[in-house]
Amino acid sequence: MTQPAIFFEEVNERQGVFHRRAILLGACAGLGIGALTARLAYLQLYQTERFEKLATSNQFNFKLAPAPRGVVVDRNGAVLAANRPNFRLLVARDTGLDTETTIKTLAEFVPLTDARQRRLLRDINSAPRRAPVSVMEDMSWEQFSAINIRAPELPGVTADMGEVRVYPHGGAFAHVIGYVAKVNREDIAATGPNADPIMMHPSFRIGKQGVEKAFDLELRGRPGARKVEVDANGREVGHDDGGDIAAIPGQEIQLTLDVDIQNRALEVFGEESGGAVMMDCRTGDILCMASAPSFDANRFVRGLTGGEYRALANYERRPLLDKCLSGLYPPGSTFKMMTALAILNAGISPEERVGCGGGMNFGGRFFHCHKRGGHGSQNLHDAIKNSCDTYFYAMSLRVGPDRIAEAARAFGLGQVFDIGIPGQKKGTVPDRAWKKSYFAKNPAQAEWWPGENLSYAIGQGYLQVNCLQLAVMTARLANAQKALNPRLVMSVGGRERPRGSDVPDLPFDPDHIAYVRRGMAAVTDVGGTAWRASQLGLGDITMAGKTGTAQVRNYDKGGHRGKGGPWRLRDHGLFVAFAPIDEPRYALAVIVQHGMGGSTAAAPRAREIMRTALLKDPEILARVQKPLPMPQMTPDPELDLLPDPPTLLTPDGDPIPASAPATPTARGRPA
Amino acid sequence: MTASALTRPGERDRLVVKLSEIDWLFVLVLCLIAGAGSLMLFSIAGSSWQPWAWNHASRFGICLLLLLVLAVIDIRVWFAIAYPLYAVGLLLLVAVEVAGDVRLGAQRWLSIGGFSFQPSEVMKLGIVLALARLYHGVSAERARLSWWLLVPTAMIAAPVLLVAHQPDLGTAMLILMTGVAIVVLAGLSWKIIGAGVALFMAIVPPFVAFVMHPYQRQRVMTFLDPESDPSGAGYHILQSMIALGSGGALGKGYGLGSQSQLNFLPEKQTDFIFAALAEEFGFVGCVSVLVLYAAAIFMALRTAYVSHSHFGRLAAAGVTATFTVYMLINGAMVMGLAPVVGVPMPMLSYGGTVMLTVMIGFGLVQSVRVHRYSEVTSGKGSFV
């Protein structure tokens, strides 16, 4: 290889160029570093605040925490709906989460069927990013702790403690209080309280019926938030106690119901279907509103299976229907008090008599009295006592439907009351105007036929009422003065709701009402239709009432008269009552659906419910327990005799003979 | 220089003399930069030596020894292996093209006997040595403006195209810029430089539109407007800027950077280590580190300046240019001034390959310094 031909000056030229260019390179590097420094100054000194905010919003998250749902209590503070702790397992979808493997891993800790796993996979993958999906509720403590230990290596998995609604009395209050359930897509609104992001929280439950639904917003409270430090994957790495926003618990709701009376009511129904409503006839408070058969609201909280739901929905006795508010029945003879008031209001003397020979011919048709042999001569008092249909048939022709409807409406029939919960059916109280509008499209039917008065007078025909309305009617009769309104919700969050007694007086002559009440007292007295079935056995505290047996179908075609045969064709048994007669406190209406007779099915049940209420009332109890007055004894000062030694009783109630040795064993602890 | 005239013959070949000629201040600066890297890697691992900090420190130690060994290797050895190294690098790049591993969608890695490495790293040094060797025997006239310039152009184009095809745009760009830097330093005519810049401006937009892979294009688009897609492609840049900005003047304190400690900062141990440092030590810390980099660049460039051989000058300056480009690109990326390309901050970022490449390069720089009076006339006379 030849030496490169480089002259000395050329070498110097190359060196000179290089030196100049090297300085240029250095200058470029310096310029670059200067530019970086300027940029740093801009970001770190000028825009610090903006980026600090962004860093904080990265670092801290507020996690919504639902507020404890408000408690529902009865009039004495007994808990009807509360919350209990619940260990839950949650999985949130996130980037880098292998849902399938995670579920497979979790199945090692908690039982998950294949079908459940497939469903979870679908649920988690369709849920919004980082929105947790509940994998399992009500884990045992062992499962909960096992998952919690493994949680750091299972991304997206958390096990935490939430709250779940619990109804300690199971089915007794299911229709009144309702239940809570998971939020449906339909529950979420675009605006308003149901657009709250808390609705998306996996442990949030929304009220679905009754009080839970009607007072959902009050019970919900305001959700709190936990200020947590999260990493880039949304995993919680720390917790800032000072930054938490406390949840405001839901408001407590106190109902006017009484646990003992309600439970007793459901108990006495047994297998039968029907409803019982009891009101305090001084205040209008509803003490009992039971519908039988009922269902366990706790099952609804957990979520029913399809089979369970079908079983409830298809059962002939319809446990899901609230028979106190939503079930409509003809009141039958319990309506005769209204007819009686209409008769008195029409100026007809109650002493006017009608002869009952087992029925009455009208318009070419024979209208039976329930007593085939007839009651003989009846005045109004007798007619109520004996429930004589013939008397009311005859009088109804003179009174007409409008007067009857006027009385019925004044006593609350055909009305919807503001008791705070939905589901009340209005029913029908017919009169001429009603029929005209009802048959507006069929003018031939729109006229009121005199024959219709007859069935109206005994609570049949178009007339339809619900159990609450019957209870209100009875309470107003018992109160005799005020047009009492029922009240179910006593207070919400400590604020009392208006009382049912702050109402105007009834538009009826108190003498007329007193007359009807005397008739009701006779019903439960010797010889009345409900004499045997309505003896309370509480001494001088007695109950007044009225039986009713409502036809479900027309008997004209003959047959069993509703006293037998298929259940759904049997008569309804009704009984309305109030007690004590001398100073009424409690009014009660009982409907036994297809129970066949008011005196046989409804009255004995009413008696039991009434006894429970009376014995719970301290003043009544004091009256019951009051010792009988001492018999008058004439003291004889001459006979200075000691009184007889008191008779000792064994715990079995057997008198111990005075001569027997009073050993401690015999007296205190018999073998 | 005067010092050379006073040295007895053979004196400069003694090891002790050679070691004393090493720029120890420069070594100290490198130690400080690598130390800052270890410090940050310890912090972002949650105050733990594992998995990064210990590795980083020990690798630096090994690389430092290698640097000292390379520093005493005669400049003529470097001169002799320049072309062979370039040829081997080119062959390896072709081999990658044929039989390389595909990792993360790009063909960059070559496995030889269970040891895998990126041949593009060999080329970073190979291009410097080969071009320095080439220009060593060329007159100023030719280097300025002549048809002969097609030779260095081809030498640069071959590896750049191969690496870009892998595709590893970051490294391709780095090799290209290193090559161009040497060509310019060697005395390229300003006319060609001006024309080249104009051409570059003209072809970049169509290149972005037609030649780039979609993910590369996405990165460029994101860079232009990072906040358009904060949780997607713009995430990296935005999080890095948040880390920087929230650090403020004095930083959040060592081990207290929320962005890096909570993993909001992506690739925090490699590409975005500077952002982690900025978050915890603030503007003051950043400027201190930049000063260290500036000092390293200045000292390496001064070595090139004082070299008596043209080969030595160009080689040292070429390595310095590579280092500078690395550092500026990473800095610009972290600060949201450049698109996200996988270029680490040299010496600070975790990663053995880049550390090794840079330290070998600085070994060459120190060899140039130690042998700055050696005459490198041709390949002849060396023992290779």
Can you offer a commentary on this structure?
The complex is a heterodimer of chains A (671) and B (384). Chain A has 671 residues and is of the alpha+beta class. Chain A folds into two domains: 193 residues, Penicillin-binding protein 2a (Domain 2); 345 residues, Beta-lactamase. In chain A, 35% of the residues lie in helices and 17% in strands. Chain A contains 22 helices and 21 strands. In chain A, a hairpin with a 6-residue loop joins strand 20 and strand 21. The N and C termini of chain A lie far apart (135 Å). The C terminus of chain A is likely disordered. Chain B is mainly alpha-helical and 384 residues long. Chain B has two domains: 214 residues, no CATH class; 133 residues. Chain B is built from 16 helices and three strands. In chain B, strands 1-2-3 form a three-stranded antiparallel beta sheet. In chain B, strand 2 and strand 3 form a beta hairpin. Chains A and B meet through helix 1 and helix 2 of A and helix 7, helix 9, helix 12, helix 14 and helix 15 of B.
